[in-house]
Amino acid sequence: MLKRLYPYRFEIFLFSQMAILFGALVIPPALFESILSPILFFINLLAGIVLVSEKKKLMWFLLILVLISTVVFGTSLFENKNEILFNSTRMASYFLFYVIVSLEIIKQVWTAKIVNKNVIFGLISGYISLGLIGFFICLSIEMVFPNSFQGILAGNSLTEGLMYYSYITLLTIGYGDILPITTLAQKAAILIGLMGQIYLVVITAIVVGKYINQSLRAN
After folding, report:
1. Which spans are transmembrane here (predicted)?
2. Residue 108 sits in which domain range?
């Protein structure tokens, strides 16, 4: 099964990411956030496992992380006494998962000899993964140090606001409607911005250079 899916690993991972980010545009937000978003997020985790399935040890490690986060999430639904511990464990598992997957995407894109649509999908999904890493960093900070970010609208959930903030910072748009007001949150903003710029300047430039050389050789 994994061998059949592996050639389409980047497409599956990217499309599940896009569904998470933009599903609320076509589905009522309340329904999407409460039901579909967790399902899509779980699908994205499984897609990440497919992405590293050629490396068995790494695949099993990611499976363990997914299992831990799932067990912790299920336990937190029935046990509220250790909410901080549960949330911290989940965030650490997700953060580590996406760091590993992002590094694997970068490695596969970096070492690709031929630039085709799979490499382009991988390049895009790697950039989106950086936004998810930034989101988990910000969410972890907000959980440990509440009110580290100012400007999240009352009508929006914390996750929606910080997801938006992470990508706006990664893209260096910086509308300023959500502000990091603690030192730790400000350092996180700098880190997210640097990750986005380094990715565009280094990884994207390498892929573009490979494509240009590939086109020249073909001609």
Report:
1. 12-29, 35-52, 59-78, 84-106, 118-142, 162-181, 188-212
2. 2-218
Reading the block at residue 4, the tokens are 């059949």
How would you classify residue 28: left for phi > 0, otherwise alpha for psi between -120 and 50, otherwise beta? beta
Q: CA 208 to CA 203: how far, in whole Å?
A: 9
Q: What is the DSSP letter of 150?
A: E
Cβ atoms of 112 and 106 closer than 8 Å: no
Number of domains in the chain: 1
Report the CATH number at residue 140. Answer: 1.10.287.70
pLDDT 10s digit of each residue in the chain, 219 long? Answer: 778 888 888 999 999 999 988 988 888 877 887 788 888 888 899 999 999 998 999 999 999 988 888 777 666 556 656 666 777 777 888 889 999 999 999 999 998 888 888 899 999 999 999 999 999 999 989 888 988 998 876 556 788 889 999 999 999 998 888 999 999 999 999 999 999 999 999 999 999 888 888 888 876
End-to-end CA distance of the chain: 38
